[in-house]
Amino acid sequence: MLSKIVVGMVAAAMLAVAGCSAKSDVTKLRTLAEQGDVKAQYSLGQCYLRGDGVRRDLVMAYSWLLLAGPSVNAKADEFRNAASMSMTAAQVAEAETQARKWRQAFEQSRPAKK
Known about the structure:
The protein is mostly helical and 114 residues long. It has helices at 2-18, 23-34, 38-50, 58-72, 75-84, 89-109.
């Protein structure tokens, strides 16, 4: 189990450096991000913000950067705020709703702590 976690952390770190130039990179990042890896969430948000390996999508960028939060990178909030400058209030609300729903589903899927 520990080796799987370490491999995931190493893969996320490598992808964060490499970016999302290939569809396979985005797929790997998305898998890690959906497993709760905040570094992958931050990197995936960056991919959507830049349109790197995916269609540029500020709502998705904002949502993933919100999930990553400042815990992984102090720049996450800065990039999220920059994205919001080009978004409507409805788009920001949509991104926040997506992030909240994802976080709730993720928390419910995790085993209860003893």
